[in-house]
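Methods: example folding runs. The two proteins below were folded one after another, and each record is reproduced exactly as written to the output file, sequence line first and structure-token line second.
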Amino acid sequence: MVRRKRVFSDNRFNFFPLIILILFSVFIYVGYVFFFNKPSVKVENKLLSSGGINSVIERNDTLIKSVEIYFVSENKIEKKIYESNENFINEEIILNIPYQNDNEILKFLKKNENKEVIVKHKLIYENIFFDSEYVSEKKLNVDILPPRIFNIETDGYTYIGGLGFIMYDTSPDTEKTFVDNGNGDLFFPITLKNNENFSNLVFFSCSNKPCANNKLIINAIDKAGNVLKFSQKIRTIKNKKWDTITIPLPRELIRNKFNMIFNDNIEVLEKEDFLKMNIDERIQNDNKIKKITEAIHPSLLFDSSFKQLSNSKVSSKYSEKRRYYFRGNPKEIIDTKFHYGIDLSSIKNAPVYSSEKGEVVHVDDSLGIYGKVVIINHGLGFYSLYSHLSDIFVQIDDKVSKKTKIGTTGTTGFAFGDHLHYGIYLQGIPIDPVEFFDKNYLNIKIFEPYKKFINKKKN
């Protein structure tokens, strides 16, 4: 029997380098996941204040199982301020953690006033291979002392729908200050540097209702976010009553108004069409007017009472409550709105003059329900609005006075007949224009407080 000799080919494939390459690739990938596929933390605060801590956590394709946040003092004392064991699924996790009502945390910060404290985030997270812990630390200086508010002056009252004033000083660390009427409106000051402090004058209104709880809240905020709130009693004198009226809507006229405002051509006006105009369009138009009239010019541009449209009568008052129904169906009230201005009626296409000195800041040929509009800035946050005009004779940046003819009355926008809708705005909030026709009222509420405030700087 002949035994064959076993022969090995030199072309045999060597798996060893491939195995090494695969293992090396796996090692590199696992290393990448371990070192780079982990969360990140950003602390938004520049200083630690009494207001709270704001952090942004990026998951970076991990599953975060728990978050703990600590304050660590220079002598290594830890104070836990936040803990959560929920699974966070949003890629970006925004944590706004207030603790102004937590006496233990505030006590800890007070002990470390003007010192450095570490803000430590400890995260337990999971990636595709394993669970791990991530720790982030950032040092911040502690500043929990709020600014001061002092030397408060006010006459302590407003007429309903009217305006008031309040003067006060704030300490030099104040970065922002304003007053809150409790009805959703904030009013900001004109401010002067007075020695080391700031002197502030705020004109405000509670609109067509009393200030909430018959008080104003003065707010002062420093760079760290510390807030001081001071409550000042304000009495609202209810010296007027406003009517509730019911308005029948002629469908054909309202349809024509709808087509003009929306550049449409509907043949039949439905309830939804009217609501689109009286609610949606009105909100959009009022928001635009608010944005235009929010800015505060630091100087007073007028010096006398405002002038009513010549030979006119007030046909609709400020804060008049209007209930709308389609003619022929008075039992179905389809909408209710307050009238934030006054309607002045005179002859057809009556000449309209600026009610006082100022500067034109807005001209609009078609501001929705208001039609053709002119808005004039009178300084210190006061503006006048003229709407439903048929013609406009001024341009933006024009300086105007009582002798400046700005337009003529008309029926543009949502107006049934020829008239001028006239409004006064204070920092975007509509107030009763009738008050501005009274020079004595303006002396008490604007001119004298402003003069006293300006003289502070001279003294």
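Second run, written to the same file directly after the first:
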Amino acid sequence: MSLPMRTGCVPQAQNYSSYDKHLVNALRMIRSLIQYVAGGQRAVAGLDARASWRIIQGIASTYELALAASMAGSTLVMEATERLGGQVDINRVRLLAPVDHPDPAHCMVTGTGLTHLGSAAQRDAMHKTAASTHVTDTMRMFQMGVEHGKPAPGEVGIMPEWFYKGDGSSLVACNAPIELPGFAGDGGEEPEIAGIYIIGADGTPFRLGFALGNEFSDHVTERVNYLWLAPSKLRQAGLGPELRLGDLPAEINGMSRIRRGEDVLWERAFLSGESHMSHTIANLEHHHFKYPQFRRPGDVHVHFFGTATLSFSDGIGAQPGDEFEIEADAFHLPLRNTLVAGPEDRLWQVTAL
């Protein structure tokens, strides 16, 4: 359904032709959003067609902006463009994750795997020792996606792998440290795209856009037994600062690297977008939001879409002090996080009341 243009999007001037008004509006139209802190105050900025970051006036969070858009029957692009203010120098502010919830317990961080062409090879190698020469569950799951993960419009495709990572407190902003737990076997990067969502007042899931992510995981633990994949995912996750609005390009080219000191320890290109996936984004979204508990009004969801590129597959083990860096052509800003050691492991004992 087309929406009426909100007033205030185009400067009013008598000598503007209809073409001039369309051009001015196009140049002002917001492509991406960021959240940041400057002078102790939170704010939101939008990227316009001139590649300038401009403050979104009267708004302190993308969550607040998304609620306003959903209640008005509008869109994030229209709401942000209507509130455009002056330019922001993002080199002089502290960038936050592109979305959060006032109560982190109402932000669910989840993901899906074996969704990218080629993604089964690394997983299959990890699980094959336990399965001997038999076809692994990994390969069976991957093949199911290849055959039935891209259904015709209006139809439901095969269910993908799914896992839980944590709530909003597990999200790590760009340039913030990402923690290696004391009990972990290792901590490795997974360069991915994540879908960002909010649930409307009537339970409707709304997609805000997409973000670059590091679905940080423990591959050593997973390799012991594939049934340990679930706990291997209970780790923090890096989320790039930029929320890309609109549709995700079908072809995304990125680069994932690990820096150790002044040197690049490892780097490899990665591909994403539906052209390189065995599932459609719509199919992954359906199988996440079909569960009623994931359609609770007001909640935020960050859902990772998987990858086929891991440094672990090349025998690399990240160490505290290493920096993960992920960038992609669909995003203007990269994601960087430095690995730090968490508290030492300890015995947790439960006290009876």
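Comment on the second run: The mean pLDDT is 90.
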